[in-house]
Amino acid sequence: DPDALLLLYASAIGPYMDMGAHARAAQAAELALSLAPSAGDPALVARMHRSVARTLLAEGRLADADA
To answer: Residue-wise pLDDT tens for the chain (67 aa)?
Structure first.
């Protein structure tokens, strides 16, 4: 179920960032982004993008986070 996996990966981003596990957060973000096209819940995809933006900001990728 793409929505369930998307929720799982997107939900893991915040705790990973809080723990300082930025590489794991980035990996979860990449996995979540790869599932977005097959997700059926637009609100879930929007929340995922917000979480992914957090990892991009931490990496100093401001333009990517703003896109």
So the answer is: 999 999 999 999 999 999 999 999 999 999 999 999 999 999 999 999 999 999 999 889 999 998 8
Rounded to whole angstroms, the Cα distance separating 26 from 51 reads 10
Contact indicator for 41, 49 with CB cutoff of 8 Å: no
What global pTM score does this model have?
0.86
**Residue 62 amino acid letter:** L
Q: How many domains does the chain have?
A: 1
State the residue range of the domain holding 51: 2-66
Whole-angstrom CA distances from 13 to 24, 45 are 8, 14
**In contact, 51 and 29? CB cutoff 8 Å:** yes
